[in-house]
Amino acid sequence: MKRRILAPVFFLLILSIGYGYAQTNVNVDWALMPFVKVDSINPILQPKMDTKFLCPIRGSKVIWEGKDVFNPAAIVKDDKIYLLYRAEDFVGKHKGTSRIGLAVSEDGLHFERLPEPVFYPDNDEMKEFEWEGGCEDPRIVEDENGVYYLSYSAYDGDKARLFIATSTDLLKWTKHGSVFEKAYNGKYSRTWSKSGSIVCKRKGNHMVATRINGKYWMYFGDTNIFLAHSEDLINWIPLEQDTHSGLGKTELFPVISVRKDKFDSRLIEPGPPAMLTDKGILLVYNSSNSTEFGDPTLAANAYIAGQALFDKNDPAKLIDRLDSSFFKPDKPYEIDGQINQVCFLEGLVHFKGKWFMYYGTADSKIAVAVKE
After folding, report:
1. Cα(135)–Cα(64) distance, rounded to whole angstroms?
2. What's the rounded Cα separation, in Å, for the pair 64 and 87?
3. Spatial CB neighbours of 340, under 8 Å, sequence gap ≥ 6
């Protein structure tokens, strides 16, 4: 999520308390809150200097998670929580290539890491898109057959593109490339895109991709939030609208946009996989507070989280939206780091009767918050 990979952006109310939600949100019955930050153990993952990886492209060993670890995806498998997290080394002109590591927990709080990344740039057909910026900001769901789908940002150092990969064991992955390669003659595969949040439904502790009106759906974007649909979870078609230029041109159709004078005034992008509930499609999203058009009671450019609800039969129809944020930086490890004032939510699972939210802090570490 690092600001270096943000596209140019366009154009918060009421301070939220450290563990939960702003008072204006207390009567909202569709939102998932409050989450309590687990101060006794946070941050749960920090950079490590003693794990090295033989980079197949550089041909030398790198301290692959020595600089920063952040922005984790989460999934429950075999009654354990698996985190797929972004890790940076110190090498290269971009001051760090990103790879994705894997950590496992039996209680959702204490994690054991694998010594090497499980997903990374390689000498393969995706190299030109992933090198040397790396593989960034994963989000994960599974299908009815137990296949895992990982959406991630392939970053070549200049442009981020939304890609997807699949696995049956979380260790070995098949890369499929741009999610938009086959849509509109590849029109959107060549432009900036990121943050793919596939709509799923909770089945026990599993977040399973679900069809609505016969199609899978995915929210994406990091300026406004857009929407795409798919038949196979790999190839996606974005929703478009007319530009009204009189030239017959089209552009992405925003289903939710930034708001002046609010916490989500600078940009918005999806957080964990969206979830189909009885009340609608719940989307937890990350946002940034504009220095010029934002909430003056909040830090300029701070990354703060909100929630929105879409119609369960029409994923493009916004029903409701929190007026104020429910999650913001207020801990030292969230305020100071690679990028200051950042809580970036990407992993959400139901486990042992609780909700666990995993998030990146100041683009430097990983923390957890829990909802009973």
Report:
1. 12
2. 7
3. 299, 362
Taking the CA atoms of residue 274, residue 328, residue 322 and residue 315 in that order, the dihedral angle to the nearest 10 degrees is -20
Q: CATH no. for residue 200?
A: 2.115.10.20
Whole-angstrom distance, CA of residue 193 vs CA of residue 224: 11
Contacts of residue 215, defined as CB under 8 A and 6 or more positions apart, other chains included, come to 229, 230, 231
Q: What is the pLDDT of residues 120-166, one digit of tens each?
A: 999 999 999 999 999 999 999 999 999 999 999 999 999 999 999 99
The one-character DSSP state at 110 is: S
Q: Count how many domains the chain has.
A: 1
What's the one-letter identity of residue 92? G
How many Å apart are CA 287 and CA 138, to the nearest integer? 17
Mode of pairing for the β-strands spanning 68-77 and 160-167: unpaired
What is the full DSSP assignment across 122-165? Answer: -SSTTHHHHTTTEEEEEEEEE-TTS-EEEEEEEE-SS-EEEEEE
Per-residue pLDDT tens over the stretch 14-64 = 223 333 344 467 679 999 999 999 999 999 999 999 999 999 999 999 999
Inter-residue contact 281 to 309 (CB < 8 Å): yes
- Residue 364: how many CA atoms within 13 Å on its side-chain side? 14
Closest by CA to 194, choosing from 147, 244, 137, is 137
Residue numbers of the domain that contains 298: 3-371
* Residue among 339, 230, 350, 225 nearest 284 (CA): 225
What tokens appear for 98 in the block?
């990103």
Side chain identity at 297, as an amino acid letter? T
What pairing do the DSSP bridges indicate for beta strands 80-88 and 68-77? antiparallel
pLDDT at 92: 80
Distances (CA, A) of 55 to 73, 99, 123, 290: 23, 10, 10, 38
* Alpha carbons 315 and 229: distance in angstroms, whole number: 10
State phi, psi for 24 to the nearest 5 degrees.
-70, -10
Condensed to tens digits (0 to 9), the pLDDT of residues 159-215 reads 999 999 999 999 999 999 999 999 999 999 999 999 999 999 999 999 999 999 999
